[in-house]
Amino acid sequence: MFEQIDFREEEGNGASGVGLMRDGVYDRIRGDILACVLTPGALIQEKELAARYAVSKSPVRDALLRLQEQGLIEVMPRKGYRVLPISLADARDLYETRILLEKACIKWAVERASDLDLAFLDRFRSAVDVESLAEWVAYNREFHRAIAQLSGNARLIKMAQEVIDQFDRLTFVGVSTAPSGASSQKLVKEHCDIIDAIQARDKTSAARLINAHVMKSQKRLFTVLENPPIVD
User: Fold this and answer.
1) What is the pTM of this model?
2) Which CATH class is domain 14-83?
3) Structural element, H or E, at residue 220
4) C-alpha angle with apex 221: 217 to 222, nearest 5 degrees?
5) Which one in 23, 190, 202, 206 has a CA-CA gap of 20 to 30 Å to 78?
6) What radius of gyration do the chain's Cα atoms show?
7) Where are the domains of the chain?
8) How many helices (H) and strands (E) does the chain have?
9) Using one digit for the tens of pLDDT, what is the confidence trace for 163-212?
10) Looking at the domain covering 88-230, what would its CATH class be?
């Protein structure tokens, strides 16, 4: 699903090279967790991950500590690590937070962004080049990140985009069992309606549409979360 990247350590790279390699390992592990390649609830070992990503255990250990801080990994004494399951309570909290942040982003985007900046959203009116589930999740993430970026508020952008990024895993789970084709077109249509309202500078309609869009996502996810293996 994801391009294989070689993160082998090389002699003579210096501190900057090691730092880039460590960031690369972190990005790979985090990406595999968010894409459910490393499934919710799975037990993982430093040695296994080091072999998987062709690196030493040191950058893997650093990455796992960072992921623990983000609430994606937990330490299991004498067992290694576990990918945290997706809990209904945490998912509900994330959705509530996301709605608040995205509504705020839309408000400021409508009031502050130029017409040229708002026209940037037109790139998300089509997803014809999106073929895989991973590409769909990336397209969806970048659409919502773009709205946040248009708010012009640096702190709000940072908070909103951090929350949006955490939704990759939830999006994968929520749409993984949905039929492609018609369902994808419907989701793109929802994006187009939101874009129309933002570009018309209709804050009320845009806020209502983003609320409905996110709530539909929550409904899809919660339907799938009835499956015990991914519920904490």
Assistant:
1) 0.75
2) mainly alpha
3) helix 203-224
4) 115
5) 23
6) 19
7) 14-83, 88-230
8) 10, 3
9) 998 888 888 877 765 545 557 788 899 999 999 999 999 999 999 999 99
10) mainly alpha
